Amino acid sequence: MNAKVLALLLIYLATIAVAGCTSGSQVKDQPAQTTSVKLEASPERYSLVMSSTPGVRLSVNTTGFTPSDAQFRWSADYGHFFSWNAPDFRINELGNPVLNNGQTIYWGFTENPSSTKDPVTVTVVAEDLRSGTVLGTSTVTLRWDGNYTVYVQDTI
Hints:
This protein is mainly beta and 156 residues long.
């Protein structure tokens, strides 16, 4: 190999090394994936006299993570939570607060509130099972319409 070809080859290799390219493909930086949790509540109005549901149905819509990799912490400043599932559709009181893996639960009450002026805030916080990092949080605000009925005012 003559000196000119060798010099060009060395310059080419040095250029590749300085550019940080060692193969035909480069790995680009991936943007950090955002995670979120959004509460969905139904029906829009719930009353103790309804026979179609034991309470306000609460489910989570998640983005950026798998619910089975998280723990969901549910709390409400009034009332308590229930499960109501197939196959027997028995109402099981879960209490308040509740931990689960994102399964649908129900919020309800059995006693008249001391005041119907204050809304009920239901909150869910999703945490990564391995790291404990908060993946997302969401709230729903329930307003009173008399002593026996609430309606969904806001979901954040």
